[in-house]
């Protein structure tokens, strides 16, 4: 008996191998083929083995991790290289010395300026000495040399602070020399002498007022020269003469003979201290300064204490 099947469209019985229904005329084979294909595709999508899916996921994850590791390594290498380059280019006094030794003067001075601008006190003081002496640069004593000296002192370089103080002392001593010479010359003319005394007293006060505060700083840290000149400054004002005598005592104990002559007058006339004739004589004897230099110091004492009635 021949195999049959029913038409999916009209339901009539037809041969199993029929491609077209003899009752309704619909094509049977095309529809079945389409259904078969769709069924096959659906089956393929559903039946992908889980092992294959897991394998593909593992491969993707491994690749991502590998890329991340490579990026991390590259970043680390770049950081190291950048650090090396950075540290190689950091200015330093040692590098300045090498540049100058190799006669690469412009680069050396530029690096020194960079260091100074960054607050390096050694570099700043070096620039002062170079411009002062005309070494590696054009000499400029009153311009750039003084500019870098002041900056180095402000930055706290000990030699710069001392140089600033001593520069002021040189100016003060120059004014003292001029004043005492005038006073000695006018001793025979009382009216002229008194005028010179008063005028130079005002000038000396102004000179001390304009002097560097570093004199005070160094005096308080034990610098003998600064103690002497700070003592002179204190003697100019009646209200600070006790401190002036104390400061001059500190200077003479360190060997400052000029202070002894001024102290001799202070003890004799009770300036900033009690009257003590014996101590005055002792100070005078201890001082080995003689001649014009001793006379100039006596005139300096007069200049500092013009308001005091002297004991003759």
Write the layout of secondary structure elements.
Layout: E1 4-6, E2 13-15, H1 29-46, H2 50-89, H3 93-101, H4 105-117, H5 121-133, H6 141-155, H7 158-185, H8 190-209, H9 214-220, H10 224-235, H11 241-253, H12 257-269, H13 277-286, H14 291-304
Helix pairs in contact: 3-4, 4-5, 5-6, 6-7, 7-8, 7-14, 9-10, 10-11, 11-12, 12-13, 12-14
Key terms:
mainly alpha, rod-shaped, 312 residues, 14 helices
User: What is the straight-line distance between the termini?
Assistant: 169 Å
User: Structural class of the secondary elements?
Assistant: mainly alpha
Q: Tally of extended strands?
A: 2
Helical content, roughly?
A: over 70%
Radius of gyration: 51 Å
> Which term fits the overall shape?
rod-shaped
Percent of residues in beta strands? under 5%
- Overall average pLDDT: 86
Biggest beta sheet summary: 2 strands, antiparallel
Unreliably modeled segments: 40-46, 83-88
Give me the number of helical elements: 14
Q: What string, H for helix and E for strand, traces the elements in order?
A: EEHHHHHHHHHHHHHH
Q: Spatial order of the strands in the main sheet?
A: 1-2
Q: How would you portray this structure in words?
A:
This protein is an all-alpha fold. Helix content is 72%, strand content 2%. The chain has helices spanning 29-46, 50-89, 93-101, 105-117, 121-133, 141-155, 158-185, 190-209, 214-220, 224-235, 241-253, 257-269, 277-286, 291-304; strands at residues 4-6, 13-15. Strands 1-2 form a two-stranded antiparallel ribbon. It is rod-shaped and about 165 Å long. The termini are far apart.
């Amino acid at each position: 008996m021949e195999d049959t099947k029913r038409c999916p469209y009209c339901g009539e019985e037809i041969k199993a191998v029929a491609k077209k229904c003899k009752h309704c005329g619909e094509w049977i084979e095309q529809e079945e083929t389409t259904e078969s294909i769709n069924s096959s595709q659906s089956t393929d999508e559903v039946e992908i083995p889980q092992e294959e899916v897991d394998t593909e996921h593992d491969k993707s994850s491994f690749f991502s991790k590998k890329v991340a590791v490579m990026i991390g390594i590259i970043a680390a290498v770049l950081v190291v290289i950048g650090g090396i380059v950075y540290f190689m280019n950091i200015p330093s006094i040692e590098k300045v010395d090498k540049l100058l030794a190799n006669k690469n003067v412009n680069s050396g001075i530029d690096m020194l300026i960079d260091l100074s601008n960054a607050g390096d006190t050694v570099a700043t003081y070096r620039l002062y000495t170079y411009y002062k002496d005309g070494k590696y640069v054009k000499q400029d004593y009153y311009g750039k040399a003084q500019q870098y000296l002041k900056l180095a002192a402000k930055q706290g370089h000990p030699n710069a602070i001392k140089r600033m103080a001593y520069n002021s002392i040189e100016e003060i001593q120059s004014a003292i020399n001029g004043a005492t010479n005038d006073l000695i010359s006018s001793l025979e003319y009382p009216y002229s002498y008194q005028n010179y005394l008063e005028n130079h007293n005002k000038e000396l006060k102004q000179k001390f007022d304009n002097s560097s505060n570093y004199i005070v700083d160094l005096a308080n840290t034990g610098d003998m020269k600064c103690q002497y000149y700070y003592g002179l400054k204190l003697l100019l004002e009646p209200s600070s003469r006790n401190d002036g005598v104390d400061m001059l005592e500190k200077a003479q104990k360190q060997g400052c003979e000029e202070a002894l002559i001024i102290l001799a007058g202070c003890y004799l006339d009770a300036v900033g201290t009690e009257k003590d004739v014996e101590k005055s004589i002792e100070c005078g004897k201890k001082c080995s300064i003689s001649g014009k230099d001793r006379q100039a110091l006596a005139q300096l004492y007069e200049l500092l204490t013009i308001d005091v009635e002297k004991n003759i």
